[in-house]
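ok so I'm stuck.
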Amino acid sequence: MNLVLLDDDDLRPDGTARLGGRRAAHVAEVLRKGPGDRVAVGRLGGDLGTGEVLAVEPGAVTLRLSLDRPPP
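replied:
not stuck anymore, here's the structure
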């Protein structure tokens, strides 16, 4: 299972996360996700959930987060 790992620097106050670099490229090019699609996400040292892709831009992906499950 692919799980996009998020750190505190990715998180925004409005409940979204902005990914850059290799993680953004992985979501857009390898997983082929676009606006409206969902990916599995996990916060480092925190909960798991899903991220809905809001935007895919050159070098960046924005996700709306729902972190609703504790880690195993």
